[in-house]
Structure of Integral membrane protein:
Amino acid sequence: MSTPAMTAQSPAADRAGPDHLRTTLRIDSWSTAVFGVVMLVGGKWLSDPLGLPTTWSVPFGVAMLGGAAALALVVGYPKIPFRLAATVVVGNILSCVALVLLAFTDVVPLTGLGRGFMAIGAVVVAVFAEFELVGLRRSSSSR
């Protein structure tokens, strides 16, 4: 005897897309803000071990705080607009590429630790981009 297959999604499955996207964007916002503060406050102390000049860490930290604020604004929408979420994914992909370029070129005189720091940052940003892309796909398919 066989059981009939369920074809309709449960209400929880319908909410999984937007909730997944909103949660990922919120975590991305908070972690970006923390990273920005670390770059601003700790830039002077991180300069020697990473090889990242303070003239780079301060603008980088300010940019991170701006990005965190933008992410928080996107999360604040009652229904996250597709275009804004897609823009976040593209921004994270571009950030990932920039971090890889910084890690594996001599644009900035990074130490080995600094190169590793940038490479790990690239991986983290890529993971956020992937999670946000999954949430975006789920939320657009549940419409």
Summary: The radius of gyration is 19 Å.
